[in-house]
Amino acid sequence: MKKIYTLLTVLITAGLVSSGCFTAAQIAALQGPPNYARSPVLDSRPQWRTVILPPTATSSANLHSGAGLDDYAGMALLRTGCFSLVDRSVVDQLLEEQEFSYSGVVDQASAVRLGRLLGAEAVMTISIGQITHDSFWDDEPAQRDANLHVKIISVESSEVLYTSTGEGSSFEGAEDALTMALELSLMGLTQ
User: Fold this and answer.
1) 89-41-116 Cα angle (round to 5)
2) What is the pLDDT of residue 87?
3) Lower Cβ count inside 10 Å, N or C end of the chain?
4) Which of 158, 149, 87 is closest to 116 using CA atoms?
């Protein structure tokens, strides 16, 4: 029964989002409470100067699918009006100079240290989880389900300001599923 419910949810979600009837945020609101937590400290400043670190993943294939997620996250953060961003090229240059490997920026202490070096007040990390193909959709080879985890950390105190998980599903491939998962994970910043 759960498989049928999940199938119906995926079909309805994909159909409504692709038809333009609803955004992913509106669909998520229909699905129940989001998977996020906000610290009260997040609202203590009118704006946070933020570094978005390149996404990390347990698999290089998943990491390749997540290319561009940091740019998408940047647009989403800027739309809130609560964040300003350190330019991505500056982040990449510092990562190279400091000889951070992309996989080495996963832990919170390294992320905070990098944020301090860039003069930021907060650091955002994106960890890509699993990207799978549901065997029920064998006739849809591009179908993918994806999940990820987002954290925004205060550089000053190392306190987690915001944490969230997101799940996305798409018949257009892993990149679209990850984008939907990211959009859903950032909903707690816009509500």
Assistant:
1) 35
2) 84
3) N
4) 158
Q: SS3 for 65?
A: helix
Q: pTM of this prediction?
A: 0.76
CA dist., res. 124 & res. 153, Å (int):
6
Q: Which residue has the higher pLDDT, 172 or 15?
A: 172
Q: Distance from CA of residue 65 to its chain's centroid? A: 13
Of the candidates 52, 18, 7, the residue with the CA atom closest to the CA atom of residue 153: 52
**Number of C-beta neighbours around residue 99 at 10 A:** 7
Q: 148 pairs with which residues across the strands?
A: 128, 166
| Residues making up the chain, counted from first to last | 191
Which one, of 186, 159, 158, 185, lies nearest residue 82 by Cα? Answer: 186
pLDDT tens digits for range 82-113? 999 988 777 777 777 766 654 445 677 888 88
* Residue whose C-alpha is closest to residue 37's, from 165, 184, 181, 180: 165
Place of tokens 């491939």: 173
The class level of CATH for 33-190 reads: alpha beta
Tens digits of residue pLDDT in 130-185: 888 888 888 889 898 999 999 999 999 999 999 999 999 999 988 999 999 999 99
* Spatial separation of the C-alpha atoms in residues 16 and 68, rounded to whole Å: 24
Give the pLDDT score at 1: 37
